[in-house]
Amino acid sequence: MNARTNSIQGNNMIKRINKFIISLFWGIRLRSVGAAFLGGCAGLSLTATVLPEALAGAGLTDSFSARIDLAGFAIYSVMLWAVGGWSAQRTGNTWLGGLVLGLVGGISGAIFTALAYGAETGLLLLGGGAGLAYGAVGGMLIATALAESKTSTSTDPTTKGS
User: Which residues, 6 or more positions from 64, have their beta carbon under 8 angstroms from its beta carbon?
Assistant: First the structure.
């Protein structure tokens, strides 16, 4: 009997620890950090995958050479998209989040393509369009998944009124 009582108390402790971890995960600060992290990862993906494949698909160069050409812009893309991801999360609206990160993607895609391959109209449209499409989808996902809840009531019965 004594062993069973200890295992029940152990289960309650594990449940409380799990609730605490989940409450931290869904806390306001961690959502913003998560959005910035996801935005930064998307920015790295833009320069490592999306733009090189768009350029290769258009027949301008092969994707490996495009990755080499765009590699110097990766850190700038990560920083810019991290701010864009954070901004998309702060909107709290799916469509506004898509608009914010879509604009970041369109502008950064056009600028990075122009700096690497020249400022021709077709190249600007290709890089900007690829970044816009990628950023809009990513912004909608970030804004939807990490939006702050509008209610301040807690579902945890152990916290009273907070």
Answer: 52
Please give the pLDDT value at position 31.
84
45: containing domain: 28-145
Please compute, for residue 66, the number of CA atoms within 13 A of its CA located in the half-sphere on the CB side: 25
Position 15 in a domain? no
pTM (predicted TM-score): 0.74
Compute the distance between CA of residue 55 and CA of residue 68 in angstroms, rounded to an integer: 12
Contact assessment for residue 131 and residue 105, using Cβ atoms and an 8 Å cutoff? yes
| Section 67-88 average pLDDT | 95
pLDDT tier, 92 (very low <50, low <70, confident <90, very high otherwise): confident
Q: Residue 129 falls within a domain, yes or no? A: yes
In a domain, 121, yes or no: yes
Distance of alpha carbon 162 from alpha carbon 144, whole angstroms: 24
Report how many domains make up the chain. 1
- Cα(54)–Cα(62) distance, rounded to whole angstroms? 10
